[in-house]
Amino acid sequence: MRRKIIYLINPISGTRGKSSLKELVVSKTKERKIPFEVLPTMIDGDYRFLKSKIKDDGITDIVVCGGDGSVNAAVNSLADTQVNFGIVPMGSGNGLAYAAGIPKNSSKALDIVFDGVARPTDAFLVNNQFACMLCGLGFDAKVAHEFAEQPKRGLATYASLTTRNFFSAKTWPFKIKANGLVFSTDAFFISIANSNQFGNNFTIAPQAVLSDGMLDVVVVKKIAKPLLLLTVLKQVMAGKIKRVENSLRSPVIYFQTEELVIENTAEAPLHIDGEPRETLKSLSIKVLPHYFRLIHPF
Ligand SMILES: Nc1ncnc2c1ncn2[C@@H]1O[C@H](COP(=O)(O)OP(=O)(O)OP(=O)(O)O)[C@@H](O)[C@H]1O
């Protein structure tokens, strides 16, 4: 089938300038003789207006030039049109792109759009909200909320907010129901991951696979502060999936499931794909296996 691409460029994601990106997109796509159009991303993340254009003009690919929040919005709006999705990582974290092996270099990422292979990729629902990368409650969500208020985006801002929050980090009480078990715990954070990382190749669920039909759940429990950094580092380097019942006494519980329910009575903050969201007292989370087609390196 002859390809036709719509590029969506987020003017505010990450810190890198977007004018040279647009030139690169235009010149490389013309070189490949592929018809295309460049549009800005939408601040409200609603791309349903593109559905008729995709159908009428025979658009085959939507390429998001932005971060995880932009990918979430485009896939959520347009997955049912059966287009393939590509990513040119321009965000602050780019967790989904890096988990798929898409590099930061825009020219190389565009080559993957042209020559890569579209693979079925999982997503998930948090109550009725769409997620395709990672959802978090607690520490990392607090950072995501503060990040959204900053005038400057990018990795440096993330790193400094993370460090600042580390010293004041607190725990929240959670009740988790998964795989036929119910357990209560105080935790610094809970990550529900489809991608293996928060972004910037900072892995939190090292064994997560984008297309295995499973969610990787990481619960970092209440432990003495001096041990927290070491515990997270051990999880990042060598976290191993265990049955919940075999890890309830460990500082980190790391398990896989297709669905879970989290009671969040103390209203720990929530993020979905790095975007701050109004928190929920009860979260019902369910994987959507092979929900969309993401272009990966060949
Ligand atoms: N045209 C636009 N003008 C202003 N803001 C926009 C526009 N399009 C999208 N946004 C905002 O951009 C944010 C999403 O940014 P994106 O995910 O692309 O980058 P990031 O947050 O820097 O990176 P990451 O999600 O990888 O950490 C959303 O809050 C969205 O409202």
Brief overview:
The chain is of the alpha+beta class.
Keywords:
alpha+beta; Rossmann fold; Tumour Suppressor Smad4; 2 domains; binds adenosine-5'-triphosphate; lipid biosynthesis; kinase activity; metal-binding; phospholipid biosynthesis; transferase
- The CATH architecture name of the largest domain reads Sandwich
> Could you give the count of β-strands?
17
Question: Given the C-alpha coordinates, what overall shape results?
Answer: globular
Quaternary form: single chain
* Number of discrete domains: 2
Write structural notes for this entry.
The longest helix has 14 residues, at 225-238. This protein has a 15-stranded mixed sheet that branches. Strands 10-11 form a two-stranded antiparallel sheet. It folds into two domains: 5-122, Probable inorganic polyphosphate/atp-NAD kinase, domain 1 (Rossmann fold, 3-Layer(aba) Sandwich), CATH 3.40.50.10330; 129-289, Tumour Suppressor Smad4 (Sandwich), CATH 2.60.200.40. The chain is globular, with a radius of gyration of 19 Å. The mean pLDDT is 92. The protein is an alpha+beta fold and 298 residues long. 29% of the residues lie in helices and 35% in strands. A hairpin with a 2-residue loop joins strand 15 and strand 16 (275-277). It contains nine helices and 17 strands. It has helices at residues 19-31, 51-57, 68-78, 95-99, 106-115, 139-148, 155-167, 225-238, 244-247; strands spanning 5-9, 36-40, 61-66, 84-89, 117-126, 129-131, 134-138, 172-178, 181-193, 197-199, 202-203, 215-221, 252-257, 259-263, 270-272, 275-277, 282-296. The site of adenosine-5'-triphosphate (ATP) has 22 residues, from helix 3. Residues 1-130 form the DAGKc domain. One of its GO terms (cellular component) is plasma membrane. InterPro entries: ATP-NAD_kinase_N, Diacylglycerol/lipid_kinase, Diacylglycerol_kinase_cat_dom, Lipid_Phosphate_FormReg, NAD/diacylglycerol_kinase_sf, YegS/DAGK_C.
